Amino acid sequence: MTTLRDIGVSALINILGTIFSLVGFMALSLQPMNDRVYKPKLYLKGVLRDSPSSTSRNNNNSHRYFETDFRQYLWSFSWVAAALRMPEENLIEHAGLDSVVYLRIYLLGLKVFVPMTIIGMVVLVTVNVGAGFLDDNATTQSTTSTNTNDTASSSNTTQLVFSGIDKLSISNIPDGSPRLWCHLIVSYIFTAWTCYMLYLEYRTITNMRRRFQDDDHRRPDQFTVLVQQVPRQFDESIHIQVDDYFKRNHPEYYLTHQLVYNANKLSKFVRKRERIRNWLAFSQLKLSREAMTPTTRPYCCGCCGGQVDAIQYYSSQIEELTQKAEAERLVILDDPKRTMAAAFVSFKSRWGAAVCAQTQQNSNPTVWLTQWAPEPRDINWKNLAIPYMQLTCRRVFVNIGVFLLVFFFLVPVALVQSLASLTGIQSTFPWLSKVLQQQFFASFIQGFLPGFILKLFTMVIPYLVTCFSAIEGHVSLSRLETTAATKFYYFVVINVFFGSILTGSAFSELQLFVGQSSLVGILKTLAVTIPMKASFFITYVMVDGWAGPAFEILRVIPLVSYHLLNSFFVKTEGDKIKAMSPGTISLSTSLPQLELYFLMGLVYSVITPLILPFIVIAFLIGFIVYRHQVINVYDAPYESAGGFWPHVHGHIIAALIIEHLTLIGLFLIQGPISFGVISSDTGTTLVGKILQYCKEALSSTPFMVALPIFTMIFHNQCKKRFEPAFKRIPLEMAVKKDLEDKAKEPRFSLAVFLRNAYKHPDFSDEIDNTPDVEATNKSPIIEDNLSEASNRISSTVSSKTVV
Amino acid sequence: MTTLRDIGVSALINILGTIFSLVGFMALSLQPMNDRVYKPKLYLKGVLRDSPSSTSRNNNNSHRYFETDFRQYLWSFSWVAAALRMPEENLIEHAGLDSVVYLRIYLLGLKVFVPMTIIGMVVLVTVNVGAGFLDDNATTQSTTSTNTNDTASSSNTTQLVFSGIDKLSISNIPDGSPRLWCHLIVSYIFTAWTCYMLYLEYRTITNMRRRFQDDDHRRPDQFTVLVQQVPRQFDESIHIQVDDYFKRNHPEYYLTHQLVYNANKLSKFVRKRERIRNWLAFSQLKLSREAMTPTTRPYCCGCCGGQVDAIQYYSSQIEELTQKAEAERLVILDDPKRTMAAAFVSFKSRWGAAVCAQTQQNSNPTVWLTQWAPEPRDINWKNLAIPYMQLTCRRVFVNIGVFLLVFFFLVPVALVQSLASLTGIQSTFPWLSKVLQQQFFASFIQGFLPGFILKLFTMVIPYLVTCFSAIEGHVSLSRLETTAATKFYYFVVINVFFGSILTGSAFSELQLFVGQSSLVGILKTLAVTIPMKASFFITYVMVDGWAGPAFEILRVIPLVSYHLLNSFFVKTEGDKIKAMSPGTISLSTSLPQLELYFLMGLVYSVITPLILPFIVIAFLIGFIVYRHQVINVYDAPYESAGGFWPHVHGHIIAALIIEHLTLIGLFLIQGPISFGVISSDTGTTLVGKILQYCKEALSSTPFMVALPIFTMIFHNQCKKRFEPAFKRIPLEMAVKKDLEDKAKEPRFSLAVFLRNAYKHPDFSDEIDNTPDVEATNKSPIIEDNLSEASNRISSTVSSKTVV
Q: pTM value?
């Protein structure tokens, strides 16, 4: 259906879009007034800072903030070099290990697919084009060869017209041709290469994680264990219970514990006080600048009531709220019902914590559950005290929900896609048919629209899966995001990948798929339809993988919202930092998208290698863009030390196995492969006879069946070898660190260090939501790397007129 | 094919066989000379003992050892009462927890199937017989109803003649009959009942296990951890390495360790010395009795060479071997290559051991692997030091081997069974056809032979799967046996159960099954064939479950071998104990057989409830027989505290799910079930309309699909709730026991207690293979229970004339 021309149109649109976005980014990011949009991370890290005067409202003199030095525009591609220049170790320090591991997935994509592209384009395309099956077939009305096939496959093959790119694909090879041995061998090479790369990657990331955890800083989560499902007893408070239990069972290592309170009401007071503090700061600023007492109205958010002195009013409000919060705090501490059945238990040494986190405490395995405490920022406070039975029920319901979402989302997608197809639009809106008969519009609809619709539908799901994961009751945000990513991956594989393959052009396949076809039949159906959908996925990769990152780097929404906020609402420095909205890498959506590229690349690597260069470009653009973003923009909300990697690894392995199953289906259709020249030429010699015998005895399918088995074995080995590093902390490592600590600081008071580490964020007296810019140690190397940007900033700042 | 008459013949044969075996057992077991055959356990426990003179050869006056008191024969059924009388707690003390848990599986079978039998026979059989579909069908040549079915199923239904028992089964109900709602509801009741019973059982066994582990005895395995994969270093011995490692990583709890040596050569010496010691004892006995110096020849096992004084010769030989063994022992201790890369590490407290066994030690998860040490008797010494990579390879190969065994064993079974069918025999041996035309022989071949052939084939497999498990490298015998049982279960389910269903009468189904039928098609095929094979499985249950235990209790082989050995070879008391060969429950074969009864019972419970009474009787006979055997005969070689139960639970759950899948297939064939009377009568009212609507919207399949899902959820809950008790020891329990120990015996030296606990059995200086009869504490309660038997023994012994 889709021709090379359609792909060309789509490529043109996407390339234009990509270039437009990048040019836009380069132009906008050079303007100093956009620095807080395009380099918020540097502000948060304290590398960049405004001149003192710029904290005031300055929208009326924003023309001073345009870049006027045109030499800068000539150097506009320097951001690429800057993004790539920072070494990995510094990047870990600058942005955390999570971001680095995330970027390494792009690198892995390049490592896997660049050699594949070369082999695919050189070897496979040559072999495919040389076969010339489709040309012959088209002339002979495609009746002779398909008779030998399975009924379902042959009918499809003949019904659907082959497009230009199919001539470059495996479809161009006649059944049983000896050329297929080449594909078989290449599929082994590709699998082996992917596995080898995955192994190296897993090893590297494991080592990085170990090194990261083994670094010099003492962190509270190294000494602390989260205890859940403390059984409630009527006569004792949770406090005493926890204390007794751990004093008894870990007599020599137990240090202290912190209870978890239900502080929702307190949070309300604290947030309100925070808001008023902000207003107070604004009023004080106004006073200092305008030399006139600012006033406000006490009711309805400053709209009703008589005018009062703002500073005085806000101060009294803060006073009142502080008293209320203090009272609430006392109530919480007093009321045993507000104490949740969970606690953070800290130990005197890493060894003690490791032991407690990694063993079963109670003979009833549903109470006193221990696990490593997430780092304080990573805690999902709301989920800490869900009872065991409720947790189980929630998980069951979420699983059912995910199942329904994954398997019954097909229906609307298929509906909309069939509506948006050329024939669908023509039949729904007959008056449009004239427009549609123009080549360009037709190509637009065929090439661009299905991918775009898919993208739209896909955009709703992340919120849904995150919601599902939140309901599941994970105690850490990182775990929540990883499980949401896994759910989203299932969704993407079933709906985006298989859904597009089975519904887009051949909707009747769905019925065939669900209704009555056998296992083998399903594989065959896939094998027939997959080559035909290559052009669609090429379009998809261009929309999602080329234009997507380019649009991401442009940061349209933060740009607009920052300038809007800055013009009208920003009152204090804190507001300005809030208005920057640096954002984060949303792992729950980014990971499945990346994994989808792996899936497409692997499945099509042997079938239609033409897709590979598009994927390589997508990985390349993504790598550069996200490296830039990680350095300059994103602010990681927590650090899980690459804890999501095992999931990514598993999903890539799943992609490999889907590839193998597709190939099995393909070779099943193709029937036994002949040995070609060899067997017919040397039929009389002994070797020839043996080959003849082999030819009869062997089909290619058994060779293919071995591949998924090998892949599974490889996966299990990786799991055994590396996964423990993501789940447990070995005692040897704990002892080593304990001894080092002792030698370095023999008098360090751990109790003081841990005292408030796991306090509810709204529970401490002094709350400061603004990130502690001064306290963050800038590493000299980062400064070095960012020197160019900051130099430019300081020079432009110095040229500004102070208001 | 098989009629009720065939089953009758088979039942007759089996009942006769069973009765014959039981009568034989009762007659033989009353003879005092057979006491060592039928009550070896009591000898081993020291409850029974021979009079001193009987240790000599006494075959020439064996007539004195027959029971002559005919009142005893009248009481011959007392063994049943005696077997059932002993309370469970005493049985645990007498025979160990493993045996008790094993017996509880029979009890569970009774608990599950007795209510099912009642409901099945009362409700389902009535409903089935009342439908009368097959009668109608037979008269109308079975053409009308089958047209509506799937092609495959209808052709089978019509091809295969229905037998008498099918009228009692679900086959007798026409498609879509409202009577099927009854089966649907009953299947829910049965599943719920089975799950409830399983839950209670799992809870009970978990508690028993906890109590057993929590008892007063101090056991070496509570303090000891098995460390494997100690990385070899060139400059340090394993001894120093282990010591350093655990001193560093468990500084406060590490006590000592025992190395594992490669002592194969030493074992040879020790065994030889043992043999010669036996000869020496024999010679000394001869000397004391015949008052003449016994002689022997020094070469070729006492056949060549000149006559020498036997006692002198043997003594010198023993001396020599002792020296050799000692030298070898020194060599082993000296040569670092003979030390294996594993060790038993003991800790000062249960807490320390629990921590070490249940945590990861090294950051490389493939070295310094720790696990709870099995109890000393349970260790599989040979497998202690297999390198990690070799272990992995072994597992992969064994898995492939098991897969091949499980899935390709079908072929010979099918071949032999088709040969042994009536038509098969007639075509192979035409001269037999006259004999075969006689009703009795035909019934014999149809009813008895297939089951017997299956049994024969099944008998080879246990050795094979045990061999597979041994290769897998499990360090404990209990684990070896449990994994062998799991492998055997796979084998039994696929080959015995599905193999018989799909090949026995309809060999063509196999091709249909493997070749091209879909998932749904497979279910439908099963649903068609399963009801037809009910009679076959009834036969199988009778052969295997009725005659089997009766034959087991008869102990033909031990009886013959004991008397043969006793007549010709028994020289010393040690020999006599060896000749008793008490045997054990072979879990690797018994468990899968029991699980197969569960599978048959559950699958047929709704389809052909007639099978249930046969299974109940099998469980009853098995329970009585094995309880008797456990008390009087079997000697448990090790104690795993019911460690195999989770496997049994999982396999019964698997059986439940197979039941559900079969029922789904069945209801798929039957099509949507009508609501019968209700919908047609009340068609005009509102309720009637709603019902009408439901009737159209609903089919029975969704109801059935919920069942396996619920079962899986139930299984997961059981697993989470109870399985940890079989894998880990909670720290709370360890601390409690530690404190109790300390309070009781504050000065107990654990180091002395553990010193030789984990020495290689051939490594200690003084070897005594005879079980330590005196040392075993007889509990007064057991004695009480066994008083009857021992009284009788002592009375008969006292009446004997001393030789």
A: 0.79
